[in-house]
Amino acid sequence: MSARVPPRLWVLLAAFVAAVLLTAQGRALAQQGPFLTARHVVQLPADDPRAGAWDQAPASEVPLIPQGAVMPALRQTSVSKVTVRALHDGKDLAVLLEWQDATRDATTGHPDLFRDAAAIMLPVSEGIPNICMGAAGQIANLWHWKADWQEDIDKGFQDVVDAYPNFYKDFYPFASGQPPFRFPQDFAAAEAKNYSPGLAAGNPLSQPVKTSPVEELTSQGFGTATHKSLQQVNGKGEWANGTWRVVFSRSLKTADPEAPDLAARKDLPLAFAVWNGSNQEVGARKQLSSFLTLAIEEAPAGQTASALWSSETPLWMWGGLGVAFLAVLGGMWMALRRTPSAGA
Ligand code: HEM
Questions:
Q1: What is this structure's pTM?
Q2: Which protein residue's CA is at the shortest distance from atom 13 of ligand 1?
Q3: Distance CA 262, CA 248 (A)
Q4: Where are the chain's structural domains?
């Protein structure tokens, strides 16, 4: 074939091939970017924010803005961005957040002290929820890591005596042990618990013994954040040289109606929030991101074709690509017909 195909048709063909490959990955061409790809690893560093395995995860730098929509608002960010990475082992997902914070604020023992914290928001229902913690009928699942809960896990419950070293109590009804008495060790007796009403009432925020530094909440818009009865998220946070690194981890699969089944969702919008305790940030006073799309990479089942071609690609997309392909071919044929052959 001596006739020349105009270069623009080759470009079209190349674009078409790229589109096919993206679609085969089940990626909607017009998907909400930016993306966060959860890479597959064999050993998941679910409780190690400094593990070398995190170098395998592509990093997304996510800008943060101050929450200025409702009072108490934040007028200016004290943390301007958070770097996010994600890994999974086919069973669990781990997400690492890293941000700059010159001070490590891990206690709320004094009324004027606030802790550092970070959160991830995931939608439970399909679609992209309202960024302000969902809305009526749009349930948001919140994973809230708190530096003071981390401190309680790493060093034991941080009691009043830790905030006020000169605190002393020489008598406590029903407490065992010696003054000034340690909470909760010396308050095992049921009667003694009555002197800690929050604990006695079962308030989750009054539980001195923490099993995870992450609280899982549900909300349908700001002002509705509620502790979830089923707590499934683990985590580990470490501060060093002015930087927090915090891992959140959870199983991919869940039957919990108040949380997204990550195994069943190919692309999931995620948003982040960060609180800086030394800037008196708590609750609504925080910085937050816009949405990112979490793409969970297929586990490499021997790199089989099935790993590449996802059954999730909607038929209309194949139809559209088919028409485009025929149009490109048609265009090439037309061009060939119009080009007079060298011998003519
Ligand atoms: C402009 C959007 C937002 C507004 C107006 C807003 C507002 C609020 C308000 C008023 C509270 C306190 C009342 C309550 O507990 O519901 C709150 C708490 C909270 N918000 Fe938001 N929020 C927004 C976005 C976000 C995002 C994107 C996330 C997560 C990525 C988030 C996570 C949380 C968490 C975990 C709490 C509980 C904090 C605590 O107990 O200290 N919020 N927010």
A1: 0.82
A2: 223
A3: 14
A4: 1-25+304-344, 33-146+211-302, 158-208
Residue nearest (by alpha carbon) to ligand 1 atom 1: 132
Q: In one letter, which amino acid is 98?
A: E
CATH domain 33-146+211-302 topology: Immunoglobulin-like (2.60.40)
Ligand 1 pocket test, pick from 99, 270, 285, 286 with the greatest ligand atom count within 8 Å of Cβ, gives 286
Which ligand 1 atom is nearest residue 142's CA?
A: 35
CB-defined site of ligand 1, < 6 Å: 67, 69-70, 119-121, 131-133, 142, 144, 217, 219, 222-225, 271-273, 282-284, 288
**pLDDT tens, N- to C-terminus, the chain (344 residues):** 455 667 776 776 677 667 666 555 554 444 445 789 999 999 999 999 999 999 999 999 999 999 999 999 999 999 999 999 999 999 999 999 999 999 999 999 999 999 999 999 999 988 888 999 999 999 999 999 999 999 999 999 998 888 998 888 888 888 888 888 888 888 888 888 888 889 888 899 999 999 999 999 999 999 999 999 999 999 999 999 999 999 999 999 999 999 999 988 768 999 999 999 999 999 999 999 999 999 999 877 755 444 444 444 556 666 777 787 778 778 777 777 776 655 55
CB atoms within 10 A of CB 254: 17
Asked if 124 contacts 140 with a C-beta cutoff of 8 angstroms, the reply is yes
According to DSSP H, which parts of the chain are helical? 7-24, 147-155, 160-163, 190-193, 197-200, 305-308, 315-338
Instruction: Tell the residue nearest (CA) to atom 23 of ligand 1.
Output: 132
Q: 10 Å Cβ neighbour count for 188?
A: 12
In 3D space, the residue among 158, 160, 186 whose CA is nearest the CA of residue 173 turns out to be 186
* Spatial contact of 123 and 260, defined as CB atoms under 8 Å apart: yes
